[in-house]
Design goal:
Layout: H1 8-28, E1 44-53, E2 56-61, E3 70-75, E4 87-91, E5 97-102, E6 108-112, E7 118-123, E8 127-132, H2 140-152, E9 156-161, H3 169-185, E10 188-191, H4 200-207, E11 211-215, H5 222-229, E12 255-258, E13 264-267, H6 281-286, H7 312-318, H8 324-336
Parallel strand pairs: 3-5, 8-9, 8-11, 9-10, 11-13
Antiparallel strand pairs: 1-2, 1-4, 2-3, 4-5, 6-7, 12-13
């Protein structure tokens, strides 16, 4: 019999049903949902999710004599998934504590996973630091996807070029032109080298006092940057695969670090793609900041900014007010919404 071909949405629904079955089965055996254990736990305290490992979390105590210490905890199964940066209410236990509530988030960065499910990446962040490098190749469309996510999450982005010491020849010209294009739109950019230390002090000043997250492909040097910003942390640094020139994953889950002078930094696992199917065409459009002054000025109210006549955005491209590569990136993202 011919095997039925399932599309991505059907595969996602099948996986979701299986995950729901597994979650219900897990709840039946979750000792932290059993009120008979409540007397074995300590008092309610405020905490911060530093990292998570499957069903367990590292919680930093924010109150009392143990403030600043890290405790391994489970979370109550009736809570929504917690992520690094979440502020929570937890109770100490032996050998593990339990998180019983999640406090209100000021912001949330999300992305779809391989099953098409929308998953949170980090919470309560102020700035998103998009890290690129000479290798692996800096894809403008991936940068644009992060920028669209930042705009829709009300996060302030910085485009950070690491490994500046490796730039030479045509590659140097290419990446300097790339940064110049984004700074011309209005985005902040910075060139640093975790190896030589160039720009690290400037980056420290930029990050101080706020909660930021490093995002980008594997191999761009996010872990090396953290080691340069926070000597003594010694996070594992990766290398490029010689066969593919793509980064090897060294960070497997997001982790939060504190700056001595104030502020926090979250390091997230590297990715090669950033799906946006969960966004509407309007959200994607509004994520391109230089398009905004032209929105609503097209001849047709339902203009798709493709082949329609008198499209204000297309006219802006023709007049040099919008870069052609940004328009192409916008159309590519729109096309991917239906894939």
């Amino acid at each position: 019999m011919k095997k039925k071909h399932l599309n991505r949405r059907q595969l996602w629904r099948i996986q979701k049903i299986q995950d729901d079955y597994a979650a219900r089965a897990e709840r039946k055996h979750d000792p932290f949902d059993d009120d008979s254990n409540i007397d074995e736990l300590g008092p309610e305290e405020k905490g911060l999710v530093i990292s998570h490992f499957g069903q367990q979390l590292d919680i930093e105590a924010l109150e009392g004599e143990n403030a600043g210490d890290i405790f391994r905890c489970h979370q109550r199964s009736n809570l929504e998934p917690l992520v690094t940066g979440d502020h929570v209410i937890w109770r100490r236990g032996e050998p593990t504590g339990v998180v019983i509530a999640n406090l209100k988030r000021s912001s949330l960065l999300q992305r779809p996973n391989n099953y098409g499910e929308l998953k949170p990446v980090a919470a309560n962040i102020d700035r998103i630091i998009i890290v690129i490098a000479p290798e692996p190749h800096a894809h403008a469309n991936l940068i644009d996807r992060y920028l669209v996510a930042a705009e829709n999450s009300k996060l302030s982005p910085l485009l950070l070029l690491n490994k500046f010491d490796l730039l030479k020849g045509d590659k140097r010209v290419e990446l300097e032109e790339l940064l110049s294009a984004y700074s011309g739109i209005g985005y902040e950019t910075l060139m640093v080298s975790s190896k030589s230390g160039k720009g690290i002090k400037q980056l420290q000043n930029y990050l101080e006092g706020l909660t930021s997250i490093f995002v980008g492909q594997s191999g761009v040097g996010k872990s090396a940057l953290i080691n340069a910003l926070l000597p003594g942390v010694d996070t594992l640094e990766g290398s490029l695969s010689k066969s593919t020139e793509k980064g090897k994953h060294t960070t497997t889950s997001a982790r939060l670090f504190h700056f001595p002078a104030g502020g926090d930094l979250i390091d997230s696992p590297g990715i090669r793609e950033f799906g946006m199917w969960h966004m509407s065409p309007e959200e994607v459009l509004n994520g391109f900041i230089e398009f905004k002054e032209f929105i609503g000025h097209c001849k047709f109210r339902d203009c798709q900014h493709k082949q329609e006549p008198d499209c204000a955005i297309k006219n802006a491209v023709a007049d040099g007010k919008i870069l052609l590569q940004r328009m192409q990136s916008y159309q590519q993202i729109l096309h991917s919404l239906n894939e």
